[in-house]
Amino acid sequence: xxxxxAVKPTRQSFSERMVEYGSINTDxxxxxxxxxxxxxxxxxxxxxxxxxxxxxxxxxxMVSAAAGMAAEGRTVVVSSYGVFLSMRAAEAVxxxxxxxxxxxxxxxxxxGVTAAIDGVTHQATEDxxxxxxxxxxxxxxxxxxxxxxxxxxxxxxxxxxxFVRLMRDPLFDVYSEEHEFCIGGSHILVEGNDVTIIAYGDxxxxxxxxxxxxxxxxxxxxxxxMYSQKPIDxxxxxxxxxxxxxxxxxxxxxxxxxxxxAVPHFLAKVDECVPFAHLGLDxxxxxxxxxxxxxxxxxxxxxxxxxxxxxxxxxKG
Length: 317
What we know:
Elements: E1 4-5, H1 10-24, E2 29-32, H2 36-39, H3 42-47, E3 52-54, H4 59-71, E4 76-81, H5 82-88, H6 90-98, E5 104-109, H7 127-133, E6 138-140, H8 145-157, E7 162-165, E8 172-173, E9 187-190, E10 195-199, H9 203-216, E11 221-225, E12 228-230, H10 234-244, E13 247-254, H11 259-269, E14 276-281, H12 291-297, H13 302-316
Parallel strand pairs: 2-3, 2-4, 4-5, 5-7, 6-7, 10-11, 10-13, 13-14
Antiparallel strand pairs: 1-8, 6-12, 9-11
Helix pairs in contact: 1-8, 4-6, 5-7, 9-13
């Protein structure tokens, strides 16, 4: 699969589509926590100033205010960095948005260690675990700009709260405009017979690169972009596992309580036992640095995936 160098980060593409969608849906509002020029929501504010609210550096208050507006029937997009939305505002998200099942959508930038240079204070490596735990919350993780734009539409058109995890920097574009996305969906990007590699967000590119290297070693890897973290696409997952007989989950997130927990939990429930591997942050905080050096140091680069799959194949026997 040929990758294209991205010219925009997903946070920008998501916000640009939000501006376009603002002319289609003339009712929804956007709440920002004083970083609109980073998340690009300022673009929405320039075009629709009466529907744009900068709530200052007060994320919990911002979510609470958004819940109040949503309770009166308006959809609200809430924007900030993932660490602040998933932790600083966690109680407000849980109790004031998820409990009453309100139409609040979360534009969550700087997911995982894509905020590499900004350091641990801005690296959201626990956000998937937190947000997937809340009842009524749906969680989406686009891998590139085209999918981010499509998933803006999905989020706004899906009833209830939706958390969309976006990245800091432009990486590579995987999809074309023809691809469609939905809650509970996934895409098989490369078909294979020996092992299933499941990834999401920026790890999709690493998985694709690893699949190419594995092919040179005679290992046929199937790559699935599990862009819907909650709910996951169980049907596609199960079909792929039955075909390949081995699976590895790769995520830019703590190993605990991420997709690497959801996948084997599901497989155990349906009595599908196969060799399994999981790459993610292993109960550590990452450090500040170059993105590619950071993901390699913490074991989630294409090199690390390739090496782990080779070990997995030995276990498969």
